[in-house]
Amino acid sequence: MQVGIDMGTTSGGTSAALDIEELLATRLLVQGNSGSGKSHLLRRLLEQSAQWVQQVIIDPEGDFVTLSDRYGHVVVDGERTEAELAGIANRIRQHRVSCVLTLEGLDIEQQMRAAAAFLNGMFDAEREYWYPVLVVVDEAQMFAPSVGGDVSEDARKMSLGAMTNLMCRGRKRGLAGVIATQRLAKLAKNVAAEASNFLMGRTFLDIDMARAADLLGMDRRQAEMFRDLKRGNFVALGPALSRRPLPIVIGNVETSARSSSPKLMPLPDAPQDVEDLIFTPDPEEFTRPVVRRAAPAPRPTTDILAELSRSTPAATPAPAEPRAVAAAMAPEEREERLAAVLAEILGDPQAAYRTDSVLYQEFLVRARMRRIVGQPMSMSEFRRRVAVARAGVDEETAASDGWKMALDLSTRVSDDLQGVFLLLAKAALKRELCPSDLRIARAYGTHSARRARRLLGYFEEQGLVVVHTDLSGKRIVAFPDLEAETLPGDADLRDGDEATSNAAE
């Protein structure tokens, strides 16, 4: 179905139509300096196409959250764990809900990691949910920088990889990237080059004008025109817009951003005693302390629960003997109770797909219900023990030097990957079949077999494992540091088949 939406008017006064179906297949790049009207253009595009296609907006400044009131977009706060964001993104695709991922309040590295996790979650959706989605990324040069900046190399690679997947490989998965940038020179070339439609606004630097002219197929001497474009004026080119460079003026929008451009305001009339007002101090001015307040950072729920676990209940008329017994709990008994609580939580079949923060909250609550006294287990220790428990290591293996070395090696990966790493290490040390993609995915907390394969590739990039196959094509994961490797295993096995194969082996 061909749907043309009205983006505004051309220089000839006719309607500037954009073919949404063509846009989904060919992607769009918007460029213009600050104040050129990029956000206004994106808002016009989103408003006009809201009824026709699912939309996801990566919003670093929180400007597009106002779409939720009129068009029903779900607002997703980016201040979540990467696993939570990936899960939300996956469900967004399943239920075909338009949303705005607002990253306002996060520093640049946190924004890059949050956006990457969300985009990867959408990219890794199962094939049955590959419905068309318009993915709009504002300030794309932040998420796909051409050179490294002040952020860590890991965050830059993660964000750039997600943006590259969106623009290079997203089309077959129904993801149509619409990226907007202030400067083409700051945007990674392999990301910009995948767009076939362009809307170029006002820009002043020679290097940006030259790149804009090259993308539009214009002569270098014509690049000067980009300096003279007014706010809201763009030059359009592409199969969804026009086969020749076409100046257009973006039309009006129905919603507005929470922030706006500065406006001039007349000064109030100066009172007659203005000098007295300025130079005469308040009698209490010198007695008041100078307090510079900083906005408090939001406290994680896990910290609050941990504090509650440490708090001492108010005095009650209950006899003192039970409290004395609790205080005198032997370390062995305390450890036994903690292990029992942990086993209860992980025994739930859905526990594998819950985030560590949710499991940790439940763990703290159950520990208090069992009256386990003492310093509560920290989040990092909890994650470590969950990773070991999910690996399913027995007592003999746990006491071996190889397992101790595996635990040391696991510290080289992030907390959320340690469970997968230890699962593979246990299989290698015990000479078990290599876990299938679905088994690895469950250890990570996802249903995506594709993500499991990507995790193996990440471990290999870090120099921790070597992945290879035998003559029959079955996968083997070797650990050079442990001098051990798994038996050849079928990556496509289901969990039940894998258990049968391990038993037969």
UniProtKB/TrEMBL annotation:
Q: Which UniProt keywords apply?
A: ATP-binding, Nucleotide-binding
Enumerate the transmembrane spans. none
Coiled-coil portions: none
One molecular function GO term is: ATP binding
The answer on whether this UniProt entry bears the keyword Disulfide bond reads no
Whose protein is this, by species?
Ferirhizobium litorale
Official protein name in the record: ATP-binding protein
The family database entries (SUPFAM superfamilies) matched by this protein are listed as:
P-loop containing nucleoside triphosphate hydrolases
- UniProt key word ATP-binding: yes
At the top level of its lineage, which domain of life is listed? Bacteria
**A Pfam match:** DUF87
User: Matching SMART domains, A to Z?
Assistant: AAA
UniProt lineage: Bacteria, Pseudomonadati, Pseudomonadota, Alphaproteobacteria, Hyphomicrobiales
Q: Where is the AAA+ ATPase domain?
A: 24-310
